[in-house]
Amino acid sequence: MPPDVRPLQAEAWLTVASRIARAGGWLIELPHRQVLWSQEACTMLEFPQGKSLALEEVLTLFTSASHERFVGAIAACAREATAFDLGLELHTLSGTPLHVRAMGQAVQDGNGNVDRIEGVFQDITGADMRWHPQKGQIGAALDCIADAFVTLDRDWRITYLNKEAERLMQRSRNEVLGRVVWNEFESLAGRTLERECRRAMEHGCVLEFEEFYPAFGLWFEIRVFPSEEGLVVFLRDVSALKRDRDSLRASEERFTRIARATTDAIWDWDLQTDTIWWSEGAHTLFGLPQGDMTSANLSWRSRIHGDDRQRVLNTMHAAIDSGVDNWTDEYRFLRADGSYAYVLDRGYVIRDDSGRALRMVGGMSDVSARKAAETELANSNRALRMVSACNSLLLRATDEQQLLQETCRLAVEIGGYRMAWVGYANDDAKRSITPVAQAGRLIDPHYLDNLHISWAEDRPEGQGLGGRTVRSGTPLVCGDVS
After folding, report:
1. Contact 106, 204 (CB under 8 A)
2. How far apart are CA 27 and CA 6, in angstroms?
3. Do 211 and 192 form a contact (C-beta atoms < 8 A)?
């Protein structure tokens, strides 16, 4: 992916531009060709502060020859990402003539397309502005920047290096000025730095890359800018950053290996973007997509069972808001196949130094089998208690109606049934079944009043559960009564 080079925003260029008299930045947004100006540029051209103009309006300020050169440079930069450094003539809004040095370069998006051009205008009216950074306030400014800064002419001679470059390269400027860089620093010859510098010199392109230099024992981030005189090279020591990146990469690899080793669904929730990452376990257990960051609402919140959702969200946000680091809950979670799994979910809140919650990581275990076993055990225990209570009732009951009525009550109160009733099978012409005792009720309070059933095999009312039970003499179970 091409580097996103932003010279007006980069530390080095900001520092230089702020120290050089009569210099200001500009930015052309593509494809709309709107031009934005810095405060210094607005002052130079006598624009109102923060003025945004179409490129065509700006071009009316240039002389005919400068107009043609600037248009050509902008077109090449937009088309081929070619940087430019031009001397141009124009006038301010009030008509005051100006001679400016115009430097610009492309900024590319992640696909390598140029989406804007950024640059600097420097007022060089009546001045000799050849590149002499060692002179005056420009050199003083460059000595203050954090990056190492080196300039090369077209014969690869070193024309300037600032104090940071002296420190990193362990040579004073007096020792190396005027010398060919590849001869003076043989350890740099033939490496990526030389190849990229030659490419930038030949094609006039801005380049950025990283490379390790054993001679210095350091990793450098290097940016190369072409100019009329040769090249401007920025070097930044990123060794500590590189170590941090390597450490982070190793930690991420360990995390990935751990996530793959466990059967749980590991998740990582970014609280700032409300996106969540799922491990392979989420796909294995629930059929969820793995690896990519997805909306927390789509892949998690919306999958919590409606009867559990508010409770789960309340307990989780209470943990986040109260400063507690650990959270756990059990709830029902929707699988990709439409069924629900019982899950045990545990999370850990990651906070910044001020205690603000940034992320939450955790693991979700499928405890459906355990829940099913617990439910089966609870049902068995309930059935045993009901049988025991009914046996005790047989010893205490004084009449048949009391026995039947109490048996129905025990089935509801101990057995956990919503309703229980007992009916007698009559030996009449319709072979009807008459309810004689009941406890509890269904949604319809008149269910038994409207119940017309029979145990006759040749009648429609005899095809139900009650009729078949009487005829067969064996217990029958229906799991779905509508």
Report:
1. no
2. 10
3. yes
